[in-house]
Write a structure and sequence with these properties.
The chain is of the alpha+beta class and 85 residues long. Helices cover 46% and strands 14% of the residues. It contains three helices and two strands. It starts with 17 loop residues before the first helix and ends with a helix.
Length: 85
Amino acid sequence: MRDFTVVVDGSGRILLPAKVRKQLNLRRGSELIGRVGDDRVTFKSRAQALKEAQEHFSRQRPSGKLWSEELIQERRREARRARTV
């Protein structure tokens, strides 16, 4: 990780250096997810945010179980109950 300096312009915008944009594969219109905290701002790509979310939820899932399968089974039970009412 390398530090770099940016300047805030009169409209509150910053320009990321070309090397940073290239390293992160950012193009015109690319979206970043920002976070403010502890007197700092951090940004990450949508792809990185998705990867982190997937890793987080995969650690929450019991081994060998698929939440999608559990959801399908639950919906089928609900449908059966609805038909018997």
